[in-house]
Amino acid sequence: MTAIIEHSSMTTEQAWAKIRDLGPKMGTNPPDVPTKIQWIQALLTLGLRTLALHEIQQLATDVASHAHLVDLIAHADRLPEDLYSADEREQTILKNLFRLDLPSEHYESHLQLWRSAASQQVWFRCIDTNVVRIDQGRVEQLQDIQSAFRTMIDGALVEFVQRPRGPLVLDGISPPWILERLLEDDAQPTTLGFRQRLLVVHTQWDSFFDGLSTIDLGERLGDDRIQWFVGADAVDQLGAFVEEHNGNAHSSVVISNPANHSPQSPAIQVLFPRSTPKKPHTTKLCTASSPGDTHRVMTPTGVHDLVAISRACGC
User: Please, are residues 172 and 257 in contact by the beta-carbon 8 Å criterion?
Assistant: First the structure.
């Protein structure tokens, strides 16, 4: 047992792999003590101190494990606060919105609705900027969503950068990891004098704000080469833009965010007859729309326990 508690130089990538591999074992009732300890260590490596402390509390009922609790608690106590409050998320939204050319009267009423919903959710920040959510007693996205989404488009980015051929259209920004990747320096075309236009489409205001609340996307978000089409009529807005700019190249690449609850890619492609769809594979991802069985595998604690965590966090 002693070897299990030794703190190795586990990376966040290794911790996510541990979470994935131990998930099925944590679904057993009850999981064995060594499995619990390895699960807690992975949570601690990811900076998820609240979930780890909850698991430690559950572990304390096992007399055989008491010798290990002090070390685990000490590790948790050294970690920064992981709760990502609704107020903090709204501040991140406002920072990102400040960079966009969106009149406040277009979104203020929708932001008010988002505030009401956000106050009922619990979000935790991992040290690698991933976000884990508890919504209605269910843990969501307890895996490395950020790396998975960013990796999805790495191959296509080579083509975008070396052979630019018109605007990129991104269908959905929640979570924002594909957008984050597209904004980075090495994702910009290398052709001298060419500025690739990025057209961002998102039809649901609540998930739009969820995306903007996840991370500060930086100053490049306000680049004038980016056009935003947000709201129920987002595709119609895009259509009007395409018609207005009929003289521009309309050979484009449409990138579909796989977590988008209201995908518009088919309708978008109609506007760009020569477009190339890029729909990343998502079979290994667990998102809010994933089947319940996937959530149960990824969720080590019971629904009532998670509700208790939510209440303890003020929701």
Answer: yes
C-alpha of 43 from chain center: 17
Look up the CATH superfamily of 147-278.
Vaccinia Virus protein VP39 (3.40.50.150)
What is the reported pTM?
Answer: 0.82
Q: Which residues of 192-207 are buried (b: 16+ CB within 10 A; e: fewer)?
A: eeeebbbbbbbbbbbb
Closest CA to 55 of 294, 68, 7, 145: 68
| Among the ranges given (49-58, 207-216, 228-237, 288-297), the one the predictor scored with the smallest mean pLDDT | 288-297
Report how far apart, in Å, the C-alpha atoms of 259 and of each of 141, 173, 208 are.
11, 9, 12
Q: What share of the chain is helix, strand, coil (3-state, %, to 5)?
A: 50, 10, 40
What integer best gives the mean pLDDT of the chain? 80
Domain with CATH 3.40.50.150 in the chain: 147-278
Question: Which tens digit of pLDDT belongs to each residue from 105-154?
Answer: 889 999 999 999 998 889 999 999 999 998 777 788 899 999 999 888 88
CA distances from 226 to 160, 200, 216, 218, 221 (A): 15, 7, 17, 13, 8
